[in-house]
Design brief:
Length: 222
């Protein structure tokens, strides 16, 4: 199974993506890791990408798309979950064209929907446990709200990430994601149109619900 997943930062996309990955034994392919792997291995594409990154510039799509495909064909040969790409409408169209040319199926697209303000509140409400950062603690979500400054799972001390408290940075990321004309949601809606044509499946999930309810809904639809 090959799956593409969308969701704003703060929507629980990582949690639900891990569920799908583990359930179907998929390779979790995250956009940032693609660049890191190619650069670390010194591939031709990696060297080209590094030149742009070192100059603080965005890597062009004609380099990014082949890098993504290479990882999908190798690491994801037995099935993949692609997370964090595409980020805009142009990339979505180019990715779809490339998949078609390579004869790679896109079996399912998952979109986790969440109101922008709620997503921001969740990001700013995240707290990390000193013993295990994966312990769920968030002052903005009643189901996983910690007891003061201690972890609700183990009692360890909690702290917040500095970037989680940077409203300007959060707003910039969300400006890109919630852009329905050219941004990430525009990319998601491109695949939604393909699903209407019977070319893939499109699953919409209400990210405002609790984790277990979203999980059950996702598994039922898969």
């Amino acid at each position: 199974m090959n799956v593409l997943i969308f969701g704003p930062n703060g929507s629980g996309k990582g949690t639900q993506g891990s569920l799908v990955k583990d359930r179907y034994n998929l390779a979790h392919i995250e956009s940032g890791a693609i660049f890191r792997n190619h650069i670390k291995q010194g591939t031709e594409l990696g060297q080209k990408a590094k030149a742009y990154i070192d100059q603080g510039e965005l890597v062009p799509d004609d380099i990014t798309i082949p890098m993504v495909l290479e990882v999908l064909k190798n690491e994801g040969k037995d099935g993949w979950l692609l997370d964090g790409f595409p980020r805009n409408l142009t990339q979505a169209k180019k990715l779809w064209e490339a998949l078609q040319e390579e004869g790679i199926n896109l079996d399912c697209v998952i979109e986790i929907q969440l109101d922008r303000q709620e997503a921001k509140d969740r990001i700013m409400g995240r707290r990390l446990c000193e013993n295990d950062p994966n312990h769920p603690n968030n002052v903005a979500i009643d189901a996983i709200k910690p007891d003061g400054d201690t972890c609700r799972v183990c009692g360890g001390a909690l702290k917040s990430r500095s970037d989680d408290q940077d409203e300007d940075a959060i707003d910039k990321r969300h400006d890109i994601y919630y852009d329905t004309q050219n941004g990430t949601l525009a990319a998601a809606y491109f695949f939604k149109d393909l699903a209407r044509q019977g070319k893939t499946r499109y699953i919409e999930l209400d990210g405002a619900r609790d984790i277990q309810t979203i999980k059950n809904d996702l598994l039922n639809q898969l």
